[in-house]
Amino acid sequence: MFHNNSSQRAIPARVGVGIWIVVTAILALPVLAQAHVTVQPKTAEGGGFSVVAFRVPNERDDASTTQVRVTLPTDQPIGSVQTTPVAGWKITTATRQLDTPIDMFGEQLDTVVSEVTWTATDGGIGPGQFQDFAVSLGQLPKSGELVFNTLQTYSSGEKVNWNQVSTDPSVEPEHPAPILRITPPVAEGSAPTDTGNHAGQDEQVQSATQSDTVVDSILPLLVSGLALAVSMVAVVLAWRRGRRPAPAAEAASPPSREDVNV
């Protein structure tokens, strides 16, 4: 009987290729989903103060992120912008003059912070790493969204501008700008109070950041699971095709009556 040995030898190869594709997809999808600068948390209550963090991942394998510059919205000036020390980074701010002063708890402000820059003093953000840069912002608008154009500079001299805003919510641009969405205040019409004490806001942003991180990780895992299921089906089908029985013409024919009765 003739055996198709080449087809049988090809089965392990096809299975191995399928498994390699599955593993590669699982490892790559979460990285692709997180490879851009974002604001954590993504939403904040309007009308008061909030602590947010700009999460900056390093997308290069051969360079470190050495500087991050965040430009605050020009159409919605923010009266109070406070930073917190980050180990290994120097923080500088720039200001701009307003054409029309804004009211900050009864005080008229004609100068606001326009940019915040973090410059690495010790290595920066290495390949495969990310860094959170926290700021306290206030007084936030009652609703809408704040767009923060961000410039990321690498040790190689490369600069990446995260400044694109898509008009279609279902389509993400190549370099999306970090966006903070403002939800209406719980007690509409009540004036926010500034106690001058922002203690506890770091804990709030940490908790919110952890929640957003969990939510952000669910979608890549679901997609990875779907890719795994589809790939495994393809591997099984390929294995079954390799075990398909030989054609009838190749099978041994049963002995005839004349051969039996000699």
The overall strand count is: 12
Q: What distance lies between the first and last C-alpha atoms, to the nearest angstrom?
A: 24 Å
Helix content: 25-40%
Residues in β-strands, percent: 25-35%
Q: How many separate domains make up the residues? A: 2
N-to-C order of helices and strands: HEEEEEEEEEEEEHH
Measured on Cα atoms, how large is the radius of gyration? 30 Å
Q: Give me the CATH superfamily of the largest domain.
A: Uncharacterised protein YcnI-like PF07987, DUF1775
Instruction: State mean pLDDT (0 to 100 scale).
Output: 77
The CATH class label of the largest domain is Mainly Beta
Order of strands across the main sheet = 6-7-4-10-11
> Counting H and I runs of at least 4 residues, what is the number of helices?
3
Principal-axis shape equals globular
CATH topology label of the largest domain: Immunoglobulin-like
Task: Name the quaternary structure.
Answer: single chain
Q: What structural class do you assign from the helix and strand content?
A: alpha+beta
CATH architecture of the largest domain: Sandwich
Sheet bearing the most strands, described?
5 strands, antiparallel
Give start-end ranges of low-pLDDT stretches. 17-33, 192-202, 248-252, 256-262
Can you tell me about this structure?
With 262 residues, the protein is α+β, with helices and mostly antiparallel strands. The protein has two domains: 1-34 and 218-245; 36-198, Uncharacterised protein YcnI-like PF07987, DUF1775 (Immunoglobulin-like). 29% of the residues lie in helices and 32% in strands. It contains three helices and twelve strands. The strands form three sheets. Strands 6-7-4-10-11 form a five-stranded antiparallel beta sheet, with no helix packed on it. A four-stranded antiparallel beta sheet has the order 1-3-8-5, covered by helices on one side. A three-stranded mixed beta sheet has the order 2-12-9, with no helix packed on it. Strand 10 (149-154) and strand 11 (159-162) form a beta hairpin. Helix 1 (5-34) runs antiparallel to helix 2 (201-242). The radius of gyration is 30 Å and the shape is globular. Residues 17-33, 192-202, 248-252 and 256-262 have low confidence and may be disordered.
